[in-house]
Amino acid sequence: MGQFLKFLIVGASNTIVSYLSYLFLIMIGCHYLAANVVSYFVGVLNSFFWNSRFVFKLGSVSWRRKFEVLLKTLCSNAFTGLILNNILLIVWIEVLRLPSLLGPLFNLFFTMPLNYLLSKNWAYRKKDD
């Protein structure tokens, strides 16, 4: 199975986890941007766990290397998961008046391919590449 396909499978599970977190927070009264930030961190941890095992296979690397990859994952996903995602949410919800429950789903068409490129070419790139 190709690496990008595996990334999409992990991304799909990550989307479910993040979106359910987002919905839960919206339902208990959180502002949509606060809910998006919290669900982002839940999603990054879920993504790191599965991408490290299933997609990019960190295997038996040192804890230091795993921590380095986690930090890079947080940084690379901060652009797509927080900055770009929130800008797009504002466009969908404030400008286009779409329901706040749909915004995160529309964002996937922009953020998923960009996340893959950042993960593959920076966060999980081997030191000798």
Intertermini distance: 22 Å
Class from helix and strand fractions: mainly alpha
Radius of gyration, rounded? 15 Å
Looking at the structure, what is the overall shape?
Answer: elongated
Strand content: under 5%
Mean pLDDT: 86
Q: List unreliable stretches of 5+ residues.
A: none
Q: Report the total helices.
A: 4
Helix content: over 70%
**Main sheet characteristics:** none
Total strands: 0
Give the topology string: H per helix, E per strand: HHHH
Would you give an account of this structure?
The chain is an all-alpha fold. Helices cover 80% and strands 0% of the residues. It has four helices and no strands. It has helices spanning 3-27, 32-55, 63-95, 103-123. The longest helix has 33 residues, at 63-95. The two termini are 22 Å apart. The relative contact order is 0.14.
